[in-house]
Amino acid sequence: MGVLRNRWTWFGLLCIVACFLNAFVTVQAFTGTYGINYGRVADNIPSPEDVVMLLRAAMIKNIRIYDANHSVLKAFRGSGLELVVNVPNELLKDFSSNEDHAMNWVKDNVQPFLPETYIRGITVGNEVLGGSDQELAEALLGAIKNIYSALNNLHLTHVVQVSTAHSQAVFANSYPPSSCIFREGVAQYMKPLLQFFSHVGSPFFINVYPFLAYMSDPEHINLNYALFESNPGIYDSKTKLHYDNMFDAQIDASYAALEDAGFGHMEVIVSETGWASHGDDNEAVATSHNARTYNYNLRKRLAIRKGTPFRPNFLVRAYVFALFNENLKPGPTSERNFGLFKPDGSISYYIGFSGLKSSSASSPVLSLKVQIFSGSLLLLFSIIKF
Ligand SMILES: *[C@@H]1O[C@H](CO)[C@@H](O)[C@H](O)[C@H]1NC(C)=O
């Protein structure tokens, strides 16, 4: 009897532990710290197959796209690259009111490509809150919940994480970082959203652009602070923390707003950050030199695998914006010049990545193969050496 009761006790305990673990095991949608946004608003960029080669040669593992284009999902099959797809804003109102449409979207655009294509996340909507469309803001949470329950019904929530990407427009007072809160008019949508994300274990995705912040207030912001170059930095007297770059400060501003809203344990992931290499006359800091400096220093910042001053235990992870210059993007000239790579696959400027081709004379695929070959040799030598 005693033995039996013991067994049952153990069994019960195991069940409790299993339930506990299950509740806390969440999808890890990001490998390492460096990712890139593969924006495709262009009519001159390489094919998705060539892009896969480019990404593998650059050893960039995490990729975000702004739709769920099937040619891309097919090209990524078996590549080992981890992909976050996006439900475009135009679909949110429909998905919020029609659960079956959300289900159909997941059945058409996610489920058939798993598991060969590593779809790790879905961002439902981009920069919705803080924008001008009130109905869209109202639809956001419903759409997210319906996409999540579709994944849940298909038993995919352990593989695919659901989130949405925000712009800086959701914040008020981001200086100093500790004073940051969610803006009036945004908080009413943000809080239930965070409640849901905290329940399902999703991170907070934020777009961080020191480039835009600098341009909005060049008299008061040191360009070197925005570019991760040597500068006096800023001091946050409330937290007694010092910031020597704006990227870290903007991430900590997000953490401060989350804490103020009651979600101090949520992780922040940077869904976009970058610097334009060319711009209009009133975008004078959009130069190739500054873009290179920002992206080179950002890459170093991410490679050290460290948290921020306020959240030292959360590694900073970011998707850089963007892979290519996108010639069909509307807006100021800078919008079409955020790419680390030119449309033909060659590098825009050197930050340690090699392109699909180095000169216009050579075949892109051939020269990439040579680069992969020499890359493997290099790897081989470094293995032998160590
Ligand atoms: C998907 O991407 C391919 C390759 O870039 C393109 O030819 C096609 O038009 C895209 N499909 C949609 C629906 O956008």
From TrEMBL:
Stored InterPro entries: GH (IPR017853), Glyco_hydro_17 (IPR000490), Glyco_hydro_17_plant (IPR044965)
Signal peptide range: 1-29
Keyword check for Cell division: no
EC number: 3.2.1.39
Catalytic activity: Hydrolysis of (1->3)-beta-D-glucosidic linkages in (1->3)-beta-D-glucans
Entry's Gene Ontology BP terms: carbohydrate metabolic process
UniProt KW keywords: Glycosidase, Hydrolase, Signal
Example of a GO MF term: glucan endo-1,3-beta-D-glucosidase activity
Top EC class, one word: hydrolase
Short name of any one Pfam family annotated for the protein: Glyco_hydro_17
Superkingdom of the source species: Eukaryota
Family affiliation: Belongs to the glycosyl hydrolase 17 family.
Name assigned to this protein: glucan endo-1,3-beta-D-glucosidase
